[in-house]
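thought: fold this chain, then report.
action: predict
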Amino acid sequence: VCDSNASLYLDHLRNCINFKYPVAKKLETVKNPKNMIRLLLDYSNFTANRVAKKRPLVKDPLAIFSAEWLARTFEMDVIVLIRHPAAFAGSLKHANWPFPFDHFLNQPFLMRDYLSDYAAVVEAFSTDKKDIVDQAILLWNIIHSTIIKYMNAHTEWHFVRHEDLSVDPLNEFRRIFRVLDLEYTQSIQSDILKSTQANSSTNLNDPLSIERDSKANIWGWKDRLTPQEIERVRTGTRLIGSHFYDDEDW
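observation:
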């Protein structure tokens, strides 16, 4: 999203961020009692948050290329999360999530503003089916080359590596809360520890669980990728990856 196509999204995003629920529009989608119950719950939550003057949090990895427009339009405070390329590739492989690169080509403003350097290779990947690791390498490079541009242009934004959060969650989140001017209460710290220091009673295989052994999870990609795939990722992301990771991170 940018100034060139903002009219398509602005009102919807503004209503969401201001906790204004589009009741009339949603009523058109109600097909059964279950839909109506969901509508009422969503409306109640939106209204309660608005009345309480809650501060909205927009968490969306797909919004990375809209970050500048979002920050400028809604005066957002931006936190950018950086992920190790092998961890990224391992996650895509584990979930078997291929990426449709033609989606990039169908967004001319995105190609114009952020991906012009990758136009030829994106076009090639959109027509020639590559394996999931090669797709992950290209996608990681595209995303993190954009992050480098953001780091140079927006010193007011906060950039943090996922691995640093995993190793030292209390101190790293303390920095984030300071940047966002939020109170870092003891209750919040307890919640952070609970979600990052899983114990023997935690079901780590539950996909809906938010509890993890964060330190152990850092190197999970070594089990998901073969040595050959790890070397392929390392070689394929070296130019961009060297801005964020050293040899010891491999």
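thought: worth noting. The first strand starts at residue 79 and ends at 82.
final: tokens above.
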